[in-house]
């Protein structure tokens, strides 16, 4: 019987023979590597490499959706072990290749791709749960579909996002908001420790005791700043079941409902168990307001908590009971999605930190009704409760004293006659003109906007000088870099 190691060797040799027979000379030239060097790299890795011209290159290079900023990496390395990552980092240093890490591919600004090498960690997705200590050590390549499915088996939970394909690595490093965050916190607030490989291949473990400044910085400082995250240890909570609910108002009732939600269910810690999103969407050709949520307590208490909202206008109501893993997906299934591989998305966000009032909400609802396609959505992610209670200075995630994150998704597609890129972006800019008076100037770093001159201030505010010090300590040569790196601000012009 063949041993595991023999099987691996056989697989590698087959791959070298079948996949790397004659690499494109132009691609090799651009990469600065020979055919023999590529074959040698393939043999050294537990994972594998993909280069331009190989049949699986298009799929290996693609972000999660049609890219707004396409890039053509010269080498994609699918790493399976920390040694693979170290080999890739050494190669990038030797060949002076621009290298970026990639996990779930969901960067909204396509920051996990580049013209050099992608160090993909998606195969490093092992998860081990300690149900006694209530912790989980999660490989940086895991996504929330996998993590939630594993935790579901134990009745345990850590707040995650609304999309199963989002990677834990990118999500956590930018904060990470989900339907249970009001009760259990921003995802990065639940991190006990991280394991990270620095540019020189050193592995560091950072937690509240060791490398505390790195632990502080990684939780909100965003991905690709300090090193390559290998795994995250989360503190878990017990959550065997949740109660999901949907309240739906007509567009006429929407301003009063939004006002009632802002007054009673955002900063208010009394309703901390009510986790939810508020969405203006177009359903059955009609704009409407939805409150889509998960209650992490007894359903009867949940009904009582929502009672005041039932008297605002005439909402329709649906509910269900189940596990977080099933209902987190199901409660959002009502939202329309373009579902086309060619559709582009522009997202913009800002934090609301003052009362908007019924009149103010009406201006936003009225603006939403001018949407140039039926897929655009306006969303509120409410804070207060646990996100606000977490001490502001204890991590690099600064957005604490706010009512909610406000974001708008604006889509366009080449097959839509009435909504091209210019229409979609103009509509989005117009929306932010209307909401501007209510925003506090901060922006959620997990929804990055490329052309943002003051991203340092908007993502990190007064945490930035400390982040810069930590960046310069752990990555003094600026090996990890992209368009929104932690670098000294440019001198005033
Ligand atoms: C459809 C969709 C739904 C979303 N839903 C939510 C939501 O509900 N809540 C929320 O808060 N956010 C949400 N987001 C935003 C999401 O949190 C960010 O886009 C996040 O950065 C994605 O992480 P990723 O690992 O999937 O992405 P990637 O594109 O792989 O990585 C994102 C960034 O992290 C870096 N990175 C990746 N892996 C590593 C690593 N191992 N070490 C160091 N750096 C690394 C990359 O270089 C890149 O800069 C959503 C985004 C999309 C597209």
TrEMBL record:
Domain of life: Bacteria
Molecular function in Gene Ontology: FAD binding; oxidoreductase activity
FAD-binding PCMH-type domain span: 69-239
InterPro entries: BBE (IPR012951), FAD-bd_PCMH (IPR016166), FAD-bd_PCMH-like_sf (IPR036318), FAD-bd_PCMH_sub2 (IPR016169), FAD-linked_Oxidoreductase (IPR050416), Oxid_FAD_bind_N (IPR006094)
Keyword Flavoprotein (UniProt): yes
Keywords: FAD, Flavoprotein, Oxidoreductase
Swiss-Prot/TrEMBL cofactor(s): FAD
Entry annotated with the keyword Translocase: no
Family affiliation: Belongs to the oxygen-dependent FAD-linked oxidoreductase family.
Protein name in UniProt: FAD-binding oxidoreductase
Organism encoding this protein: Solirubrobacter ginsenosidimutans
